[in-house]
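Open question from group meeting: does this chain pack into something compact, or does most of it stay loose? Before anyone orders reagents, we agreed to write out a predicted structure and look at it together. Recording both the input and the output here so the notebook holds the full record.
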Amino acid sequence: MEGRSALRAIPDPPCAHVTGAVYRAIVLGPGCDVAGSGHTGGVPGEAAGRIRDWEVAGGVVLRGDQLLLVRNRRRNDSVEWSTPGGVVDPGETMLEALGREVQEETGIQVHLWEGPLYEITVDFTDLGWRLRVETHLAVDWNGEIVLEDPDGIVEHADFYHPDECEVRLVQSPRWVREPLMEWCRRRPDQKLTYRYQVTGTEIDGLAVTRL
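C-alpha cells returned:
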C-alpha cells in the first residue's frame, strides 16, 4: 500500500516497502531480506509456515477539491505516488501513527481525523504477508508542505485535482489506486472495504486479484 524503504516497524528492512494510499504497498527488491525474516526476494514466506501481519495508516488531506499526494522514490529508482501514511509502530494507535507519518512526510499537522473512509486487506499468499490499511480523512489541519521524511523516500508532495491524481496513480499498485480513486469519485457516507490477493514472489511478476 501501493512503497517505503527502511520503515521503523519492520526489523532490518533494507528492501521492504510499505506505502499507504492510501496507502503504502510492499515492494521487494531482488535478493533483499524480506522484512528481516531471513528470507530473500523470491523465497515464499509461507515456507516458514507463518503469516506476518502489518497495520498501515493512510491519510486523505484535502485543500478544497485537491488531494495531497506524495511521490515515493524506490530502491530501483522507480517512482510511485500515494497519499501520506505508513506502518503503525508498536505502542501506537492507528491515528497516532497516521499523524506522525503525515507530519514527517509532508510537514502538515493534523489535529482531527474522521473515518475510516475505507479499509483494505491485502493477502500476499506466496510471501506469507497480510497488509491491513485504514484510510482516514483529515478534517482539521494546518501547515505548509515541508519534506521531512526520515526514511528519505518521499521526494515530493503537493495537492492535485482528482484527474491529476488519477494520472499520477497509474503506476501505483491496484490496492492503492482503486480504493482512493473510487472514494474520490463517489464520496460515500459509509466506510468502504476492499480485499486483494497477491500471488508471486518477484516484484515484476506479482499477480493482483480483487476479491
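Observations to bring back to the group:
The first strand starts at residue 52 and ends at 60.
The CA atoms of residues 118 and 192 lie 4 Å apart.
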